[in-house]
Write a structure and sequence with these properties.
Elements (H helix, E strand, L loop, with lengths): L2 E6 L7 H16 L3 E6 L5 H12 L5 H8 L1 H16 L4 E4 L7 E2 L8 E3 L3 H8 L3 E5 L2 E3 L5 E3 L5 H11 L4 E6 L20 E3 H9 L7 H10 L3 E5 L7 E4 L3 H4 L5 E5 L2 E10 L4 H11 L7 E3 L6 E9 L3 H14 L4 E5 L2 E7 L9 H11 L6 E5 L2 E7 L3 H11 L8
Parallel strand pairs: 1-2, 1-9, 2-6, 3-6, 9-11, 10-12
Antiparallel strand pairs: 4-5, 7-8, 11-12, 13-18, 14-16, 14-17, 15-16, 18-20, 19-20
The chain binds aspartic acid and magnesium ion (MG).
The site of magnesium ion has 3 residues, from loops.
Protein name: Aspartokinase
Keywords: Amino-acid biosynthesis, ATP-binding, Kinase, Lysine biosynthesis, Nucleotide-binding, Transferase
Catalytic activity: L-aspartate + ATP = 4-phospho-L-aspartate + ADP
Length: 407
């Protein structure tokens, strides 16, 4: 007998019929003799609706109340799934985040899980109850509701699997696994059978939407094997796991793109110590994460300072940057919302030179101008005009041999 944590995303829970389908799958695994904890997302589209309501009622919705609002979607889906399982004759029980409890810090809308006491869950599991837990939500030390950031149910599932030392954590979604790139852009994209935590972390942080980044961080930290697979068929998906020798042999495993960042440039900044901190600190104080950063070569004591932030934080970031720019007597603040970040990821980059050069050559051949570059040990990202997104992804996918026969 194993302890299985399964997570079903919004699309899998998207209608009554689909919830029935999820219940059947859960029942099947339970009938095979497993203890089951099922984590679910809100029905597809529901969280978006709630977010839209928040943005309609206030320009900067209050953080605490925002979480109370957006956590509502999962309350509906856990109740429906638990009802369905009960009507099928199974012992099931829904749990909201605070009932587990999933204890988080107080960073509303992007809370981090700190602790998940397992006593209550263990007692229910011992009685053969299937637990249906609301993903995405938790509770802070003050007893306030928190949410874990969009896509946070993945993290709930992995964290529960870690807390319960589950044997398997299966993330059921609407795709067959992790692909070499977005199959909607590139017909030749292929399912990756096994991928390391490191690569998955990069891909997730780069816009591959299949897993929330924090879920991968959690999985890596606690060594949880995460099986990403489809809820619509029985195919094996992608195993996200510890790196091994085979993985290192691959130069580039995947290509990601993100259209949800915007560029902010502070022009004609005095080039002296402390300026970068003066521009960026207020942003980090406001919990806005800055991604790519470029500072031009100084000319006559002045430079331009450019960075990207998530589209969702754009309004806030711009207001903050304008204030900082004024304080340091910069000339002006320019913005560009039409950018995309294209990235290539692979463990093999560690031991092979020339990957970046090849990437730049491939893009240059298509006349795609690179606006910003950033690299890590296993990743190279570039910012380009968003109109080139699809083209860039396709040519890179081809150039790095991902479009050929399956690896
Ligand atoms: N329902 C939340 C969202 O749409 C959490 C999730 O789906 O993982 O972001
Ligand atoms: Mg998701």
């Amino acid at each position: 007998m194993a302890l299985v944590v399964q997570k079903y995303g919004g699309t899998s829970m998207g209608s009554i019929e689909r919830i029935r389908n999820v219940a059947k799958r859960v029942a099947k695994t339970y009938d095979a003799g497993n203890d089951m904890v099922v984590v679910v997302s809100a029905m597809s589209g529901e969280t978006n609706k709630l977010v839209a309501l928040a943005n309609e009622i206030a320009e900067f919705p209050d953080n605490r109340e925002y979480d109370v609002l957006v956590a509502a979607g999962e309350q509906v889906s856990i109740a429906l799934l638990a009802m369905c399982l009960k009507s099928m004759g199974y012992k099931a029980k829904s749990y909201l985040g605070f009932q587990v409890p999933v204890v988080t810090d107080s960073a509303h809308a992007k809370a981090r899980i700190e602790e998940i006491p397992d006593t209550k869950m263990r007692a229910d599991l011992k009685e053969g109850t299937i637990l249906v837990v609301a993903g995405f939500q938790g509770v802070d030390a003050a007893g306030d509701l928190t949410t874990l950031g969009r896509g946070g149910s993945d993290t709930s599932a992995v964290a529960l699997a870690a807390a319960l030392k589950a044997d398997v954590c299966e993330i059921f979604t609407d795709v067959d696994g992790v692909y070499t790139t977005d199959p909607n852009i590139c017909k030749d994209a292929k399912k990756i059978e096994r991928i390391s935590y490191e690569e998955m972390l990069e891909l997730a942080s780069l816009g591959a939407k299949v897993l929330q980044i924090r879920s991968v961080e959690f999985a890596k930290k606690y060594n949880v094997d995460v099986h990403v697979r489809s809820s619509f068929n029985e195919n094996l998906g992608t195993m996200v796991t510890k790196e091994d020798k085979d993985m290192e042999a691959v130069l580039v495993s995947g290509i990601a793109y993100a259209k949800d960042e915007v560029k902010i440039a502070v022009m004609h900044v005095p080039d002296k110590p402390g300026i970068a901190a003066q521009i960026l600190s207020p942003l980090s104080d406001a919990n806005i994460s800055v991604d790519m950063i470029v500072q031009n070569v100084s000319e006559q004591g002045f430079t331009d300072f450019t960075f990207t932030v998530p589209q969702a934080d754009f309004k806030k970031a711009l207001a903050i940057t304008k204030e900082a720019a004024e304080a340091i007597s910069a000339k002006e603040v320019l913005t560009d919302e039409n950018i995309s970040k294209i990235s290539i990821v692979g463990l093999g980059m560690r031991s092979h030179a020339g990957v970046a050069t090849k990437m730049f050559q491939v893009l240059a051949k298509e006349g795609i101008n690179i606006q910003m570059i950033s690299t890590s040990e296993i990743k190279i990202s570039v910012v380009v005009d968003s109109k080139y997104t699809e083209l860039a992804v396709r040519v890179l996918h081809d150039a790095f041999g991902l479009s050929g026969e399956a690896k």
